[in-house]
Amino acid sequence: MGLGGAAFRGDLSARRPAQLVDVPPMRHDRLVDTWSGGDLVMVVGAQDGTTVAHAVRRLVADAAPFARLRWEVPTPTGTSLESGLLFLSHQAHVGAQFVPLQQALDESDALNEWTTAIGSGSFALLPGFAADGWLGESVLG
Predict the structure, then answer these.
(1) Of 129, 96, 102, which is closest to residue 17 (Cα–Cα)?
(2) Rounded CA separation 105/102 (Å)
(3) 89 near 2, Cβ under 8 Å?
(4) Measured between alpha carbons, how far is 55 from 116 in angstroms, rounded to an integer?
């Protein structure tokens, strides 16, 4: 689970990690607001697609009072109407590590002819927690 930059507004602005920066659009990108950004990201995985689909349905339903689904990646069971590829990269510092690499790929990667990014988002993954704590307590608590 991770928090996007927009989640760190108001009282939480001082807690935004300095390493969390927005990735600037690259020359080959065709970014669409619908598929970009967000306040919260959750990655749900399991060996069985049905398990994942059920877990996602429950999480979406339970979060409905305070969050709305922005985008969803299709599961093997076909619970989504959209398809495509999702690329995840875990970086200690988005601006110092990921952005320079993406800029280099944007200039010379042969796959640019065949792939087009339509969405982008940066999220700070929440750290673990003690048995008597809660997820994100050290950042949000």
Answers:
(1) 96
(2) 5
(3) no
(4) 30
Classify residue 114 by its DSSP letter. T
Residue range 106-138, pLDDT digits in tens = 999 999 998 899 999 999 999 988 999 999 998
pLDDT in tens, 40-49: 998 898 998 8
Is the CB of residue 15 less than 8 Å from the CB of residue 140? Answer: yes
Residues whose CB falls within 8 Å of the CB of residue 8, separated by 6 or more in sequence, listed in order:
15, 16, 20
* Per-residue burial over 28-54, b = 16 or more CB atoms within 10 Å of its CB, e = otherwise: ebebeeebbbbbbbeeeeeeeeeebbb
Taking alpha carbons only, the member of 104, 137, 123 closest to residue 43 is 123
Return phi, psi of residue 131, to 5°. -55, -30
